[in-house]
Amino acid sequence: MLDMDATIAVAIFLVTYALIMSEKLHRAVISLAGAMLVIFLGVLTQEEAIRGIDFNTLALMLGMMMIVIITRRSGVFEYIAIKAAKVAKGDPIRILVLITTITAVLSAFLGSVTVVLLMVPVTISICDRLNITPLPFLLCEIIGSNIGGTATPVGDPPNMLIYSATDLQFMDFVFNLTPLVFAVLAVTIALIAVFYRRRLVVSEDDKAKVMQLDEMAAIKDWMILKKSLVVLALTICGFFLQQIIGLHTGTIALSGATLLMIISGEEPEDVLLSVEWPTLFFFIGLFILVESLVKVGVIGYLAEGSLALTHGDFALTAILILWMSGIFSAFVDNIPFVTAMIPLIKEITHLTGMPIDPLWWSLALGTCLGGNGTLIGASANVVVAGVSEKHGVLISFMWYLKIAFPLMILSLLMSTLYLYLRYLI
Fold first, then answer.
1. Mapped to the 3 state alphabet, what secondary structure does 266-319 carry?
2. Longest dimension (CA), the chain
3. pLDDT in tens for each of the 425 residues of the chain?
4. Cα separations (Å) of 16 from 27, 30, 42?
5. What is the rounded CA–CA span in Å between residue 293 and residue 274?
6. What is the dihedral of CA 281, 58, 120, 227, to 10 degrees?
Protein backbone atom coordinates (compact mmCIF):
# COMPACT_ATOMS: atom_id res chain seq x y z
CA MET A 1 0.00 0.00 0.00
CA LEU A 2 1.37 3.40 -0.98
CA ASP A 3 1.53 6.10 1.69
CA MET A 4 0.27 9.63 1.07
CA ASP A 5 3.58 11.03 -0.23
CA ALA A 6 4.01 8.10 -2.61
CA THR A 7 0.44 8.48 -3.87
CA ILE A 8 0.99 12.20 -4.51
CA ALA A 9 4.33 11.58 -6.28
CA VAL A 10 2.89 8.89 -8.54
CA ALA A 11 -0.21 10.92 -9.35
CA ILE A 12 1.80 14.02 -10.27
CA PHE A 13 4.23 11.97 -12.38
CA LEU A 14 1.45 10.20 -14.31
CA VAL A 15 -0.54 13.40 -14.90
CA THR A 16 2.64 15.18 -16.03
CA TYR A 17 3.44 12.31 -18.39
CA ALA A 18 -0.09 12.33 -19.83
CA LEU A 19 0.04 16.08 -20.41
CA ILE A 20 3.42 15.76 -22.14
CA MET A 21 1.92 13.14 -24.47
CA SER A 22 -1.14 15.31 -25.16
CA GLU A 23 1.06 18.21 -26.35
CA LYS A 24 -1.57 20.68 -25.09
CA LEU A 25 1.13 22.75 -23.41
CA HIS A 26 4.86 22.95 -23.99
CA ARG A 27 6.55 20.00 -22.31
CA ALA A 28 9.02 22.25 -20.48
CA VAL A 29 6.15 24.10 -18.79
CA ILE A 30 4.46 20.83 -17.86
CA SER A 31 7.57 19.20 -16.36
CA LEU A 32 8.42 22.34 -14.36
CA ALA A 33 4.84 22.55 -13.08
CA GLY A 34 5.02 18.93 -11.92
CA ALA A 35 8.38 19.56 -10.25
CA MET A 36 7.09 22.59 -8.39
CA LEU A 37 4.05 20.64 -7.20
CA VAL A 38 6.10 17.89 -5.53
CA ILE A 39 8.01 20.62 -3.69
CA PHE A 40 4.94 22.67 -2.69
CA LEU A 41 3.12 19.53 -1.49
CA GLY A 42 6.07 18.49 0.65
CA VAL A 43 7.10 15.31 -1.16
CA LEU A 44 10.58 16.81 -1.65
CA THR A 45 12.33 19.61 0.18
CA GLN A 46 13.97 22.32 -1.89
CA GLU A 47 17.40 20.91 -1.03
CA GLU A 48 16.39 17.39 -2.11
CA ALA A 49 15.03 18.74 -5.39
CA ILE A 50 18.31 20.51 -6.15
CA ARG A 51 20.28 17.34 -5.36
CA GLY A 52 18.08 15.42 -7.80
CA ILE A 53 19.07 17.62 -10.76
CA ASP A 54 21.80 16.11 -12.93
CA PHE A 55 23.89 19.18 -13.65
CA ASN A 56 26.48 17.23 -15.67
CA THR A 57 23.85 16.28 -18.27
CA LEU A 58 22.62 19.88 -18.44
CA ALA A 59 26.17 21.22 -18.82
CA LEU A 60 26.93 18.67 -21.56
CA MET A 61 23.84 19.62 -23.56
CA LEU A 62 24.38 23.37 -23.07
CA GLY A 63 28.04 23.21 -24.07
CA MET A 64 27.39 21.20 -27.25
CA MET A 65 24.47 23.47 -28.21
CA MET A 66 26.71 26.54 -27.95
CA ILE A 67 29.50 24.95 -30.01
CA VAL A 68 27.09 23.92 -32.76
CA ILE A 69 25.35 27.32 -32.79
CA ILE A 70 28.66 29.05 -33.56
CA THR A 71 29.84 26.35 -35.99
CA ARG A 72 26.56 26.52 -37.92
CA ARG A 73 27.18 30.19 -38.75
CA SER A 74 30.13 29.18 -40.92
CA GLY A 75 27.84 27.30 -43.35
CA VAL A 76 29.80 24.05 -43.01
CA PHE A 77 26.72 21.82 -42.74
CA GLU A 78 25.29 23.11 -46.01
CA TYR A 79 28.72 22.51 -47.57
CA ILE A 80 28.75 18.89 -46.38
CA ALA A 81 25.29 18.13 -47.82
CA ILE A 82 26.02 19.71 -51.21
CA LYS A 83 29.42 18.02 -51.41
CA ALA A 84 27.84 14.64 -50.68
CA ALA A 85 25.30 15.15 -53.46
CA LYS A 86 28.05 16.03 -55.92
CA VAL A 87 30.26 13.12 -54.86
CA ALA A 88 27.24 10.91 -55.58
CA LYS A 89 27.10 12.57 -59.04
CA GLY A 90 23.44 13.44 -58.50
CA ASP A 91 22.38 9.80 -58.22
CA PRO A 92 19.48 9.67 -55.71
CA ILE A 93 20.33 6.26 -54.22
CA ARG A 94 23.93 7.25 -53.66
CA ILE A 95 22.85 10.58 -52.18
CA LEU A 96 20.48 8.71 -49.85
CA VAL A 97 23.30 6.45 -48.63
CA LEU A 98 25.81 9.28 -48.22
CA ILE A 99 23.52 11.78 -46.50
CA THR A 100 22.16 9.13 -44.11
CA THR A 101 25.67 8.00 -43.22
CA ILE A 102 26.84 11.58 -42.70
CA THR A 103 23.79 12.31 -40.54
CA ALA A 104 24.48 9.23 -38.40
CA VAL A 105 28.18 10.02 -37.93
CA LEU A 106 27.56 13.69 -37.09
CA SER A 107 24.75 12.73 -34.70
CA ALA A 108 27.14 10.56 -32.70
CA PHE A 109 29.14 13.63 -31.71
CA LEU A 110 26.91 16.69 -32.19
CA GLY A 111 23.55 15.28 -31.10
CA SER A 112 20.73 13.93 -33.25
CA VAL A 113 18.39 16.90 -32.84
CA THR A 114 21.04 19.45 -33.79
CA VAL A 115 22.14 17.53 -36.89
CA VAL A 116 18.68 17.01 -38.40
CA LEU A 117 17.83 20.64 -37.76
CA LEU A 118 20.79 21.59 -39.94
CA MET A 119 20.50 18.87 -42.61
CA VAL A 120 16.78 18.89 -43.44
CA PRO A 121 16.52 22.27 -45.26
CA VAL A 122 19.47 21.59 -47.57
CA THR A 123 18.25 18.04 -48.24
CA ILE A 124 14.86 19.36 -49.38
CA SER A 125 16.64 21.89 -51.59
CA ILE A 126 18.69 19.14 -53.28
CA CYS A 127 15.58 17.02 -53.84
CA ASP A 128 13.81 19.98 -55.42
CA ARG A 129 16.64 20.27 -57.94
CA LEU A 130 16.41 16.55 -58.67
CA ASN A 131 12.62 16.83 -59.00
CA ILE A 132 12.00 13.90 -56.62
CA THR A 133 10.16 13.49 -53.33
CA PRO A 134 12.31 14.26 -50.28
CA LEU A 135 10.31 11.86 -48.06
CA PRO A 136 12.69 8.85 -48.31
CA PHE A 137 15.63 11.13 -47.52
CA LEU A 138 13.89 12.70 -44.52
CA LEU A 139 12.88 9.23 -43.31
CA CYS A 140 16.51 8.12 -43.51
CA GLU A 141 17.74 11.25 -41.74
CA ILE A 142 15.36 10.64 -38.84
CA ILE A 143 16.31 6.98 -38.50
CA GLY A 144 20.00 7.60 -39.20
CA SER A 145 20.23 10.35 -36.58
CA ASN A 146 18.72 8.14 -33.87
CA ILE A 147 20.85 5.15 -34.83
CA GLY A 148 24.04 7.24 -35.00
CA GLY A 149 23.21 8.95 -31.72
CA THR A 150 23.15 5.53 -30.06
CA ALA A 151 26.89 5.06 -30.56
CA THR A 152 28.17 7.60 -28.01
CA PRO A 153 27.03 9.13 -24.73
CA VAL A 154 26.69 12.58 -26.33
CA GLY A 155 24.68 11.56 -29.40
CA ASP A 156 21.18 11.13 -28.01
CA PRO A 157 19.50 12.48 -24.84
CA PRO A 158 18.81 8.98 -23.37
CA ASN A 159 22.51 8.14 -23.59
CA MET A 160 23.44 11.47 -22.01
CA LEU A 161 21.21 10.62 -19.06
CA ILE A 162 22.61 7.09 -18.67
CA TYR A 163 26.18 8.36 -18.98
CA SER A 164 25.77 11.06 -16.39
CA ALA A 165 24.04 8.76 -13.89
CA THR A 166 26.65 5.98 -14.03
CA ASP A 167 30.38 5.34 -13.79
CA LEU A 168 30.57 4.44 -17.48
CA GLN A 169 33.23 6.16 -19.58
CA PHE A 170 32.87 7.68 -23.06
CA MET A 171 34.77 4.81 -24.68
CA ASP A 172 32.58 2.22 -22.92
CA PHE A 173 29.66 3.38 -25.08
CA VAL A 174 31.80 3.35 -28.21
CA PHE A 175 33.20 -0.15 -27.65
CA ASN A 176 29.90 -1.71 -26.58
CA LEU A 177 27.40 -0.02 -28.90
CA THR A 178 29.22 1.00 -32.09
CA PRO A 179 29.52 -2.53 -33.62
CA LEU A 180 25.74 -2.97 -33.49
CA VAL A 181 25.11 0.61 -34.62
CA PHE A 182 27.09 0.05 -37.83
CA ALA A 183 25.18 -3.16 -38.54
CA VAL A 184 21.73 -1.65 -37.90
CA LEU A 185 22.57 1.44 -39.96
CA ALA A 186 23.78 -0.62 -42.93
CA VAL A 187 20.72 -2.90 -42.92
CA THR A 188 18.32 0.05 -42.56
CA ILE A 189 19.84 2.05 -45.41
CA ALA A 190 19.89 -1.02 -47.66
CA LEU A 191 16.24 -1.85 -47.02
CA ILE A 192 15.01 1.71 -47.58
CA ALA A 193 17.12 2.06 -50.75
CA VAL A 194 15.67 -1.19 -52.14
CA PHE A 195 12.13 -0.21 -51.18
CA TYR A 196 12.34 3.20 -52.89
CA ARG A 197 14.66 2.33 -55.79
CA ARG A 198 11.92 2.69 -58.43
CA ARG A 199 10.82 6.11 -57.17
CA LEU A 200 14.35 7.46 -56.93
CA VAL A 201 15.01 7.74 -60.63
CA VAL A 202 15.94 11.10 -62.17
CA SER A 203 16.88 12.45 -65.58
CA GLU A 204 20.41 13.43 -66.58
CA ASP A 205 19.26 17.06 -66.81
CA ASP A 206 18.16 17.00 -63.16
CA LYS A 207 21.46 15.42 -62.13
CA ALA A 208 23.25 18.22 -63.93
CA LYS A 209 21.37 20.80 -61.80
CA VAL A 210 22.85 19.27 -58.65
CA MET A 211 26.33 19.13 -60.16
CA GLN A 212 26.08 22.86 -60.87
CA LEU A 213 25.71 23.68 -57.15
CA ASP A 214 28.74 25.41 -55.66
CA GLU A 215 29.49 23.93 -52.26
CA MET A 216 32.19 26.52 -51.61
CA ALA A 217 29.58 29.28 -51.80
CA ALA A 218 27.88 27.71 -48.77
CA ILE A 219 30.82 28.66 -46.55
CA LYS A 220 29.94 32.10 -45.16
CA ASP A 221 32.84 32.63 -42.75
CA TRP A 222 36.14 30.76 -43.17
CA MET A 223 37.64 32.11 -39.95
CA ILE A 224 34.73 30.89 -37.81
CA LEU A 225 34.87 27.56 -39.64
CA LYS A 226 38.55 27.00 -38.86
CA LYS A 227 38.21 28.03 -35.23
CA SER A 228 35.04 25.97 -34.75
CA LEU A 229 36.56 22.81 -36.21
CA VAL A 230 39.65 23.14 -33.99
CA VAL A 231 37.55 23.56 -30.84
CA LEU A 232 35.17 20.79 -31.89
CA ALA A 233 38.12 18.44 -32.44
CA LEU A 234 39.58 19.36 -29.05
CA THR A 235 36.21 18.78 -27.35
CA ILE A 236 35.72 15.37 -28.95
CA CYS A 237 39.30 14.41 -28.02
CA GLY A 238 38.45 15.48 -24.48
CA PHE A 239 35.49 13.07 -24.49
CA PHE A 240 37.70 10.21 -25.65
CA LEU A 241 40.37 11.03 -23.04
CA GLN A 242 37.89 11.72 -20.26
CA GLN A 243 39.08 8.84 -18.10
CA ILE A 244 42.67 10.08 -18.32
CA ILE A 245 42.06 13.79 -17.71
CA GLY A 246 39.49 13.10 -14.99
CA LEU A 247 36.89 15.68 -16.02
CA HIS A 248 33.16 15.22 -16.48
CA THR A 249 31.79 15.53 -20.02
CA GLY A 250 29.75 18.56 -18.98
CA THR A 251 32.94 20.34 -17.91
CA ILE A 252 34.65 19.41 -21.19
CA ALA A 253 31.72 20.61 -23.32
CA LEU A 254 31.35 23.91 -21.47
CA SER A 255 35.12 24.47 -21.65
CA GLY A 256 34.99 23.98 -25.42
CA ALA A 257 32.03 26.35 -25.74
CA THR A 258 33.75 29.01 -23.65
CA LEU A 259 36.98 28.71 -25.63
CA LEU A 260 35.11 29.01 -28.93
CA MET A 261 33.26 32.13 -27.79
CA ILE A 262 36.57 33.70 -26.77
CA ILE A 263 38.47 33.00 -30.00
CA SER A 264 35.53 33.55 -32.37
CA GLY A 265 34.56 36.92 -30.94
CA GLU A 266 30.87 35.98 -31.04
CA GLU A 267 28.59 38.01 -28.79
CA PRO A 268 27.53 35.84 -25.82
CA GLU A 269 24.01 37.29 -25.99
CA ASP A 270 23.59 36.13 -29.59
CA VAL A 271 24.83 32.63 -28.83
CA LEU A 272 22.84 32.21 -25.63
CA LEU A 273 19.64 33.46 -27.25
CA SER A 274 19.90 30.56 -29.73
CA VAL A 275 20.26 27.89 -27.03
CA GLU A 276 17.31 25.50 -26.66
CA TRP A 277 16.51 26.65 -23.11
CA PRO A 278 13.06 24.98 -23.05
CA THR A 279 14.76 21.59 -23.54
CA LEU A 280 17.13 22.19 -20.64
CA PHE A 281 14.32 23.26 -18.31
CA PHE A 282 12.29 20.26 -19.43
CA PHE A 283 15.13 18.07 -18.15
CA ILE A 284 15.30 19.98 -14.85
CA GLY A 285 11.62 19.31 -14.18
CA LEU A 286 11.97 15.61 -15.02
CA PHE A 287 14.98 15.16 -12.76
CA ILE A 288 13.01 16.56 -9.82
CA LEU A 289 9.94 14.42 -10.57
CA VAL A 290 11.97 11.21 -10.75
CA GLU A 291 13.82 12.13 -7.56
CA SER A 292 10.43 12.29 -5.83
CA LEU A 293 9.65 8.72 -7.01
CA VAL A 294 13.00 7.51 -5.69
CA LYS A 295 12.49 9.14 -2.30
CA VAL A 296 9.03 7.68 -1.66
CA GLY A 297 10.12 4.15 -2.62
CA VAL A 298 8.15 3.73 -5.85
CA ILE A 299 11.27 2.87 -7.85
CA GLY A 300 12.16 0.10 -5.40
CA TYR A 301 8.62 -1.28 -5.62
CA LEU A 302 8.78 -1.37 -9.43
CA ALA A 303 12.18 -3.08 -9.29
CA GLU A 304 10.80 -5.86 -7.13
CA GLY A 305 7.86 -6.25 -9.53
CA SER A 306 10.19 -6.53 -12.52
CA LEU A 307 12.23 -9.19 -10.76
CA ALA A 308 9.07 -11.15 -9.98
CA LEU A 309 8.17 -11.06 -13.68
CA THR A 310 11.56 -12.41 -14.79
CA HIS A 311 12.10 -14.53 -11.65
CA GLY A 312 15.45 -12.81 -11.21
CA ASP A 313 16.86 -14.30 -14.43
CA PHE A 314 19.64 -12.05 -15.74
CA ALA A 315 19.13 -12.72 -19.45
CA LEU A 316 15.36 -12.31 -19.25
CA THR A 317 15.76 -9.08 -17.30
CA ALA A 318 18.12 -7.62 -19.93
CA ILE A 319 15.85 -8.59 -22.81
CA LEU A 320 12.75 -7.32 -20.97
CA ILE A 321 14.42 -3.93 -20.47
CA LEU A 322 15.39 -3.81 -24.17
CA TRP A 323 11.93 -4.58 -25.55
CA MET A 324 9.98 -2.67 -22.92
CA SER A 325 12.17 0.38 -23.59
CA GLY A 326 11.91 -0.03 -27.35
CA ILE A 327 8.14 -0.41 -27.61
CA PHE A 328 7.45 2.24 -24.99
CA SER A 329 9.85 4.75 -26.58
CA ALA A 330 8.15 4.33 -29.95
CA PHE A 331 4.92 5.86 -28.68
CA VAL A 332 6.01 8.35 -26.03
CA ASP A 333 9.01 10.61 -25.66
CA ASN A 334 11.93 8.45 -24.57
CA ILE A 335 13.47 11.13 -22.33
CA PRO A 336 11.04 10.88 -19.38
CA PHE A 337 11.00 7.09 -19.77
CA VAL A 338 14.76 6.65 -19.48
CA THR A 339 14.87 9.17 -16.63
CA ALA A 340 12.53 6.91 -14.66
CA MET A 341 14.31 3.69 -15.71
CA ILE A 342 17.79 4.67 -14.49
CA PRO A 343 17.04 4.44 -10.75
CA LEU A 344 14.91 1.34 -11.43
CA ILE A 345 17.85 -0.53 -12.98
CA LYS A 346 20.11 0.55 -10.13
CA GLU A 347 17.61 -0.85 -7.65
CA ILE A 348 17.30 -4.15 -9.57
CA THR A 349 21.05 -4.72 -9.48
CA HIS A 350 21.17 -3.69 -5.82
CA LEU A 351 18.57 -6.33 -4.96
CA THR A 352 20.08 -9.14 -7.02
CA GLY A 353 23.76 -8.41 -7.56
CA MET A 354 23.30 -8.75 -11.35
CA PRO A 355 26.02 -7.28 -13.61
CA ILE A 356 24.73 -3.81 -14.32
CA ASP A 357 26.57 -2.77 -17.50
CA PRO A 358 24.63 -5.07 -19.92
CA LEU A 359 21.40 -3.65 -18.49
CA TRP A 360 22.58 -0.13 -19.37
CA TRP A 361 23.25 -1.28 -22.94
CA SER A 362 19.76 -2.80 -23.07
CA LEU A 363 18.25 0.50 -21.94
CA ALA A 364 20.36 2.59 -24.34
CA LEU A 365 19.56 0.40 -27.35
CA GLY A 366 15.87 0.15 -26.48
CA THR A 367 15.26 3.85 -25.94
CA CYS A 368 17.43 5.17 -28.80
CA LEU A 369 16.42 2.62 -31.46
CA GLY A 370 12.82 2.39 -30.23
CA GLY A 371 12.46 6.12 -30.81
CA ASN A 372 12.51 5.38 -34.55
CA GLY A 373 9.19 3.53 -34.37
CA THR A 374 6.79 6.47 -34.72
CA LEU A 375 6.91 10.14 -35.61
CA ILE A 376 6.68 11.13 -31.94
CA GLY A 377 9.12 8.56 -30.55
CA ALA A 378 12.15 10.85 -30.28
CA SER A 379 12.94 14.55 -30.34
CA ALA A 380 14.72 14.33 -33.72
CA ASN A 381 11.58 12.87 -35.33
CA VAL A 382 9.42 15.78 -34.18
CA VAL A 383 12.04 18.32 -35.28
CA VAL A 384 12.27 16.85 -38.81
CA ALA A 385 8.48 16.79 -39.15
CA GLY A 386 8.24 20.41 -38.05
CA VAL A 387 11.06 21.76 -40.21
CA SER A 388 9.94 19.86 -43.31
CA GLU A 389 6.36 21.12 -42.91
CA LYS A 390 7.69 24.70 -42.91
CA HIS A 391 9.28 23.86 -46.28
CA GLY A 392 6.01 22.50 -47.67
CA VAL A 393 6.77 18.78 -47.13
CA LEU A 394 4.23 16.99 -44.94
CA ILE A 395 5.30 13.79 -43.17
CA SER A 396 2.13 11.97 -42.11
CA PHE A 397 2.08 9.90 -38.94
CA MET A 398 0.71 6.76 -40.65
CA TRP A 399 3.09 6.94 -43.64
CA TYR A 400 6.04 7.10 -41.29
CA LEU A 401 4.62 4.38 -39.02
CA LYS A 402 4.13 1.74 -41.71
CA ILE A 403 7.75 2.04 -42.86
CA ALA A 404 9.66 2.93 -39.71
CA PHE A 405 7.94 0.65 -37.19
CA PRO A 406 8.93 -2.62 -38.94
CA LEU A 407 12.48 -1.28 -39.26
CA MET A 408 12.46 -0.49 -35.55
CA ILE A 409 11.30 -4.04 -34.72
CA LEU A 410 14.10 -5.40 -36.91
CA SER A 411 16.65 -3.24 -35.07
CA LEU A 412 15.40 -4.57 -31.72
CA LEU A 413 15.68 -8.14 -32.99
CA MET A 414 19.26 -7.45 -34.05
CA SER A 415 19.89 -5.87 -30.63
CA THR A 416 18.48 -8.94 -28.87
CA LEU A 417 20.81 -11.23 -30.79
CA TYR A 418 23.77 -8.92 -30.17
CA LEU A 419 23.10 -8.67 -26.42
CA TYR A 420 22.59 -12.40 -26.09
CA LEU A 421 25.75 -13.39 -27.96
CA ARG A 422 27.98 -10.73 -26.35
CA TYR A 423 26.75 -10.57 -22.76
CA LEU A 424 24.12 -13.16 -21.87
CA ILE A 425 25.58 -16.57 -22.75
1. CCHHHHHHCCCHHHHHHHHHHHHHHHHHHHHCHHHHHHHHHHHHHCCCHHHHHH
2. 72
3. 568 888 999 899 889 878 876 767 887 899 899 999 999 999 999 999 998 888 887 888 788 889 888 988 888 878 888 888 888 888 889 989 999 999 999 899 887 877 887 788 888 888 888 888 899 999 999 999 999 999 998 888 889 889 888 888 888 999 999 999 999 999 999 999 898 888 888 888 878 888 888 888 888 889 999 999 999 899 988 888 877 888 888 899 899 999 999 999 888 888 998 887 887 888 888 889 888 888 887 766 776 776 678 887 899 999 999 998 898 888 766 777 787 788 888 888 888 888 889 999 999 999 999 989 988 777 788 778 877 887 888 888 889 889 999 999 999 999 999 999 999 88
4. 9, 6, 17
5. 33
6. 130
Does pTM top 0.85 for this prediction? no
Q: Radius of gyration (Cα) for the chain, nearest Å?
A: 22
Q: How far apart are CA 216 and CA 182, in angstroms?
A: 30
Distance from C-alpha of 245 to C-alpha of 139, rounded to nearest angstrom: 39
Cβ(317)–Cβ(359) below 8 Å: yes
How far, in Å, CA of 236 to CA of 238, rounded?
A: 5
